[in-house]
Structures are given as structure tokens and as C-alpha cells.
């Protein structure tokens, strides 16, 4: 399943969905990727750590997760977070072309190839559940509540500077024990 991001500069709710997709394409001009959870006070859940580590490698996954920084499409492409950064005006046609091409190939060959690649590269359900359990444990903490409250006061999850520059906003929050 290919995924593309073009119109909005940030869509927080799509982070884990993006990581679970088979291929990812993003608008060079508009896409911003990031994992803000550690900046709020919890590790990413829902398999994000598993997927990011496999996609980016250990060092880059640590950079993305531990810094809670924003990554533009060009850097995300260089890191392997997305397959390709494409000019926004060409993105929909590009992704549609890939889907059309793949749809013409023999189904059994597609299934066999994808199954083999998945067996090598995807986390187990137990690994994803472990990430989710740790996230659920930490997200209930007072530090997370404090940091989330401060972000909402700054305009978190509303159209504006905090949402468009979340990585910077997270870096500017006060330290919490």
C-alpha cells in the first residue's frame, strides 16, 4: 500500500499509519515528519520504534525518536523514512503511476515477494504490543500531562506556529523530571 503526503504540513495522527505502509512518498515542499512522543514524555507506541529502527537504522532512529525534531521530505528520504520526496504538483500522479504499474504484475508473484520481504523486515506482533504497553504506562504520567498542557496552551493541535514547528516547540519546553 503506497502512502503520500502532500497537502498539509503536519498530520500527527498519520505517523504510525505512515510507518505501517509498504511504500511512502511525500511532498518535497509540504511534508514534515517527526516523532514527538519523547519530547512529550513517552516513547512512540504502536510499533513506531520497531518500524523506524528497521527503516532508518539504529543511529538515525535514535536521532528521530530522542530529539523529537521535525524532518523535511528531503532529509526523510535520505534517512529512508520515505521512499521518495516528489514535487507536490507531481505527487498524486507519481503515486498513481506506481500503483497502476504494480497492479499489472502477476498477483502470486507480488504476494510471494511481499511475504518474503515482510518476514525479513517487519516487527513481530509481540514487539509491537511491547511498545504499546510501554507507551500506555508512561503516557499516564504527570510529566506527560504537564508537557501536553503546555503544548496545548501554545496552540498544539490547532493550525498555527506550534503545530507547523512542533519539533522546535518541543525543544523549547521546560525540563520535567
From TrEMBL:
Domain of life: Bacteria
Cross-referenced InterPro entries: ClpP/crotonase-like_dom_sf, Enoyl-CoA_hydra/iso
Lineage per the UniProt record: Bacteria, Bacillati, Actinomycetota, Actinomycetes, Streptosporangiales
Protein name: Enoyl-CoA hydratase/isomerase family protein
Amino acid at each position: 500500500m503506497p502512502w503520500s503526503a502532500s497537502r498539509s504540513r503536519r498530520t500527527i495522527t498519520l505517523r504510525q499509519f505512515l510507518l505501517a505502509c509498504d511504500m511512502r512518498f511525500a511532498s518535497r515542499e509540504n511534508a514534515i515528519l517527526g516523532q514527538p512522543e519523547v519530547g512529550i514524555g513517552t516513547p512512540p507506541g504502536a510499533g513506531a520504534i520497531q518500524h523506524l529502527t528497521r527503516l532508518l537504522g539504529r543511529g538515525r532512529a535514535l536521532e528521530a525518536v530522542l530529539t523529537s525534531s521535525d524532518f523535511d521530505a528531503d532529509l526523510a528520504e535520505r534517512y529512508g523514512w520515505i521512499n521518495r520526496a516528489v514535487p507536490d504538483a507531481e505527487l498524486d500522479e507519481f503515486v498513481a503511476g506506481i500503483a497502476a504499474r504494480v497492479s499489472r504484475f502477476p498477483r502470486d508473484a507480488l504476494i510471494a515477494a511481499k511475504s518474503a520481504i515482510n518476514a525479513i523486515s517487519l516487527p513481530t506482533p509481540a514487539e509491537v504490543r511491547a511498545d504499546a504497553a510501554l507507551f500506555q504506562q508512561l503516557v499516564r504520567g504527570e510529566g506527560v500531562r504537564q508537557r501536553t498542557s503546555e503544548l496545548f496552551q501554545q496552540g498544539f493541535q490547532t493550525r498555527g506556529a506550534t503545530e507547523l514547528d512542533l519539533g522546535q516547540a518541543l525543544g523549547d519546553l521546560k525540563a520535567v523530571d
